[in-house]
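Work Package 3 (structural annotation) set out to generate three-dimensional models for the target panel prioritized at the project kickoff. During this period the team completed the workflow that converts sequence records into discrete structure tokens, so that structures can be stored uniformly alongside our sequence database. As a representative example, we reproduce one entry of 425 residues exactly as it appears in the project archive.
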Amino acid sequence: MRELFHVLLMERRGDNTAWDNYLQAAFEANKTWDQLVREILFPDEKDPQRAGAGFFYTKRLEAYGQNPIDHPGLTRDVGRLFLGIDLQCAQCHDHLFIGDYKQREFQGLYSVYLNVTAKGDQPVPAVIEKPLIKKHEFVSVFDSTKQETGPRIPFGVELPIPEAPAAGTPPASALALIARDLPRVDNDRFSRNIANRLWFLMIGRGLVHPLDLHHSDNPPSHPELLDLLAREFATHQFDIRWMLRELALSQTYQRSSQGDAIPEPPPPESYLWGIEKRLSAEQLLRSTLRATGDLERLEPPPGTAAAGEWKELRTRFLTAYANEPREPEGEYLATVKGALFALNDGKLLDLMKRRPGNLLDRVATLTAPTEIADEFYLTIFTRFPTDEERGEVQAIFEKDPARREQSLATLAWAMLASIEFGINH
């Protein structure tokens, strides 16, 4: 869960130990989604239980390359990830193609994040917030008429400017207002967004697709279902474990992905059978190590820092299979760099060597080609081979018996590099 939500929320921007510890503790305690979001939107570096939450902001407030600090990008990400609305193209004017997305919705949220910067040289991620003392002025590139707005949660009411504090008291926080009012039970956009994202994580496609384009011209494929999921999730206090369990018990999640017998399969948004989706980089790493028999040997115990061969392999898998930083991982696609990695990477190919107790060690003790085929297919594909596949394995060993051990390693590599292995069926 920690790893999954790290990718969902940070979108490959990098790692941070305090953030990892925060997420790990949150999911171990089954912290509710609204509370988690509240703490992310209003982090407190003085609270050891919440300090790591500030990484969501601070990483996005770093300047990269020759670009200025991307306050508009931070504004966009809060709308995308917590409300399911991408207001990027409504920054300078009303959206040209999505009638629901108005410039005022972007600028109201932007008025808050324009005043936030990252603290430097801190042991934990932390931000500085300038007091918001007046409304934010903006104009459209198509109309020079000046407009203004106070803090505003998109499609919600405009919040009042916090009053100047009395002497000796800390300034009022616009971040606190956003954190208070955005993740509310009565905010339908908040509930529908997370219900849609959890459905996507389990099923493979959002009821609203793409995930961050909820608007009237892009309705859910099953509107009654999304309403039900959002309502029930809110009723159950945004309990993520409860929601994932309900989805796992659904007929939709449990449907087979084998639709070969249907001449014209229905579209994926029908959910009439299981959607095949490519494994994420992290899933592919663990699945590979589980198949070769190296997972327990290499994976660090929970709560310990990654090191050595595991750390290097993880870096290589992420480089080969993960999306580029700042790109949402709405789908995982096969790529040329992934294929080249599977073909040439020395650390990956090293896993095909025989070690005591690993896959290659087990199959090396078998003599019958049918037994070898069964062991490979059950371990790597978690299914028995067909008669044709057993025949192919037998032909490999009959062709060159003297190179038996090399043939075993090549067969293991070919199966691990296959589309079948890289797909969640």
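Residues 248 and 254 are 7 Å apart (CA to CA).
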